[in-house]
C-alpha cells in the first residue's frame, strides 16, 4: 500500500515524533448554545487514547462509556485537546474528578450530546527535526502550494495498524474466512476495507493527474462533487472554475450499499475499487482537502521546524507531512529517540 502525491519532487528527509511535546492536536468543535442538559468539557489528554479517556470518566461516574459523547478519536502519542459531553446531572460529582493524564480546561453547556463528527476540523502543531535552513524554505514553499492546489485526502498509516495487518483481517472477514464476534471490531475492519480501496482509487487518480496535469488534480467527466453547502452532485460539465475557487471538490467512493456512484470516465476508474456485494452502508469522501492557517517557526540553532496548520475533520496531519516530504511514513518509523532524529 503506497500513497502517491501530486508533485513528485525530491524527498526531504525530516523526522517527526508522535510524542506529547512534539505532536499537539486541538479540536475545532461545532458551536455550543451554552445552555441545556449536557455539560460540554474541553479536555486535554496526554499519552492516552480517546477510549482510555472516556473509560476514565465512565469509571469515575460508574456509568456506561456510551453515555459520554465525543466528536472524534485522537492519537495516544500526542497532547490532544478535544470535547466531550456528559449529562448535567453529574456536574456535582465531576467537580471531584482528577486524573494524571486528563485536565478539564473549560466547561459549558449544550442542548445536545456531542456525536461523532460534531467538529469543524483540527488544529495541529508538529515539530519537524533535522531540517536545514534550505529545507525549511522548501517545506514552506511546498506547504503553501499544497494549500492552493489541494492535498490528496488519503487515510493515513494509522488507519491500517502498525504493520498494516488490519486490511488482511478485513479481507478475510468479508470473504468469510475469519469469524469476528466483537461488533466494534467488525465495524472497524469494514471501515478499514473501505478505506483501503478508497486509497487505491485515489492513488490511481493522483498518478493520472501527475501524468496529465503536472501537479494539479485532474477532474473527469462523471465525477461526483461535494459543494461547499454539503451537497453531492454530478454536473453536466466539469466545474473547473468552482473547483479552483474551492467551492466544490471531487469525491471518492467508500464502497457499500445506498451510495451515489460516479459515471462515465470517472465511473470506469471507480468501478475497479468498488465491492457491490458489501452489505454495509457506503458513503463518499472528499478526494482533496485544503490545509489552512499554515504557520512555520524555524529554530535555526537546533534544526527544528515547527509547522502548525488546520485540516477538516477526518483528515490526517501525517498525510500532509508525507506530501511535503514526498515520502511515505509507517507507524513503526515514527516514535524515535532524540538521538535518531536525523540520518
From TrEMBL:
<dbReference type="InterPro" id="IPR042214">
    <property type="entry name" value="TruD_catalytic"/>
</dbReference>
<dbReference type="InterPro" id="IPR001656">
    <property type="entry name" value="PsdUridine_synth_TruD"/>
</dbReference>
<dbReference type="InterPro" id="IPR020103">
    <property type="entry name" value="PsdUridine_synth_cat_dom_sf"/>
</dbReference>
<keyword id="KW-0819">tRNA processing</keyword>
<dbReference type="Pfam" id="PF01142">
    <property type="entry name" value="TruD"/>
</dbReference>
<comment type="similarity">
    <text>Belongs to the pseudouridine synthase TruD family.</text>
</comment>
<dbReference type="InterPro" id="IPR011760">
    <property type="entry name" value="PsdUridine_synth_TruD_insert"/>
</dbReference>
<dbReference type="GO" id="GO:0003723">
    <property type="term" value="F:RNA binding"/>
</dbReference>
<dbReference type="GO" id="GO:0005829">
    <property type="term" value="C:cytosol"/>
</dbReference>
<comment type="function">
    <text>Responsible for synthesis of pseudouridine from uracil-13 in transfer RNAs.</text>
</comment>
<dbReference type="InterPro" id="IPR050170">
    <property type="entry name" value="TruD_pseudoU_synthase"/>
</dbReference>
<dbReference type="InterPro" id="IPR043165">
    <property type="entry name" value="TruD_insert_sf"/>
</dbReference>
<protein>
    <recommendedName>
        <fullName>tRNA pseudouridine synthase D</fullName>
        <ecNumber>5.4.99.27</ecNumber>
    </recommendedName>
</protein>
<dbReference type="InterPro" id="IPR020119">
    <property type="entry name" value="PsdUridine_synth_TruD_CS"/>
</dbReference>
<dbReference type="GO" id="GO:0031119">
    <property type="term" value="P:tRNA pseudouridine synthesis"/>
</dbReference>
<keyword id="KW-0413">Isomerase</keyword>
<feature type="active site" description="Nucleophile">
    <location>
        <position position="75"/>
    </location>
</feature>
<feature type="domain" description="TRUD">
    <location>
        <begin position="150"/>
        <end position="304"/>
    </location>
</feature>
<dbReference type="GO" id="GO:0160150">
    <property type="term" value="F:tRNA pseudouridine(13) synthase activity"/>
</dbReference>
Amino acid at each position: 500500500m503506497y500513497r502517491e502525491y501530486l508533485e513528485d519532487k525530491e524527498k526531504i528527509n525530516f523526522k517527526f515524533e508522535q510524542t506529547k511535546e512534539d505532536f499537539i492536536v486541538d479540536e475545532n468543535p461545532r458551536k455550543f448554545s451554552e445552555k441545556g442538559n449536557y455539560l460540554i468539557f474541553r479536555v486535554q489528554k496526554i499519552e492516552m487514547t480517546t477510549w482510555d479517556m472516556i473509560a476514565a470518566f465512565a469509571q469515575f461516574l460508574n456509568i456506561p462509556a456510551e453515555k459520554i459523547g465525543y466528536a472524534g478519536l485522537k492519537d495516544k502519542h500526542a497532547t490532544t485537546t478535544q470535547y466531550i459531553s456528559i449529562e448535567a446531572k453529574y456536574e456535582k460529582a465531576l467537580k471531584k474528578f482528577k486524573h494524571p493524564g486528563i485536565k478539564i480546561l473549560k466547561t459549558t453547556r449544550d442542548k445536545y450530546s456531542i456525536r461523532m463528527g460534531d467538529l469543524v476540523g483540527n488544529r495541529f502543531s508538529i515539530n519537524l527535526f533535522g531540517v536545514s535552513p534550505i529545507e525549511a524554505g522548501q517545506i514552506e514553499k511546498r506547504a503553501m502550494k499544497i494549500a492552493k492546489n489541494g492535498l490528496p485526502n488519503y487515510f493515513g498509516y494509522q488507519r491500517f495498524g502498525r504493520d498494516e495487518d488490519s486490511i488482511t483481517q478485513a479481507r478475510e472477514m468479508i470473504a468469510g474466512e475469519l469469524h469476528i464476534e466483537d461488533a466494534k471490531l467488525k465495524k472497524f475492519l469494514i471501515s478499514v476495507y473501505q478505506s483501503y480501496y478508497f486509497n487505491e482509487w485515489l492513488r490511481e487518480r493522483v498518478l493520472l493527474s501527475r501524468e496529465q496535469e503536472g501537479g494539479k488534480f485532474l477532474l473527469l467527466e462523471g465525477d461526483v462533487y461535494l459543494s461547499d453547502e454539503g451537497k453531492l452532485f454530478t454536473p453536466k460539465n466539469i466545474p473547473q472554475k468552482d473547483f479552483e475557487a474551492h467551492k466544490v471538490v471531487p469525491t471518492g467512493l467508500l464502497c457499500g450499499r445506498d451510495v451515489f456512484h460516479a459515471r462515465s470516465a470517472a465511473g470506469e476508474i471507480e468501478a475497479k475499487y468498488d465491492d457491490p456485494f458489501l452489505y454495509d452502508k457506503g458513503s463518499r469522501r472528499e478526494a482533496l482537502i485544503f490545509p489552512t492557517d499554515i504557520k512555520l517557526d524555524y529554530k535555526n540553532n537546533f534544526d527544528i521546524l515547527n509547522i502548525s496548520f488546520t485540516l477538516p475533520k477526518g483528515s490526517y496531519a501525517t498525510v500532509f507531512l508525507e506530501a511535503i516530504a514526498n515520502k511515505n511514513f509507517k507507524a513503526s518509523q515514527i516514535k524515535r529517540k532524540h538521538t535518531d532524529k536525523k540520518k
